[in-house]
Amino acid sequence: EAQVTQNPRYLITVTGKKLTVTCSQNMNHEYMSWYRQDPGLGLRQIYYSMNVEVTDKGDVPEGYKVSRKEKRNFPLILESPSPNQTSLYFCASSFSGGGGTGELFFGEGSRLTVL
Amino acid sequence: GNSVTQMEGPVTLSEEAFLTINCTYTATGYPSLFWYVQYPGEGLQLLLKATKADDKGSNKGFEATYRKETTSFHLEKGSVQVSDSAVYFCALSDRSGYGGSQGNLIFGKGTKLSVKP
Question: What residues in chain B have per-residue pLDDT under 50?
Answer without folding.
Answer: 96-102
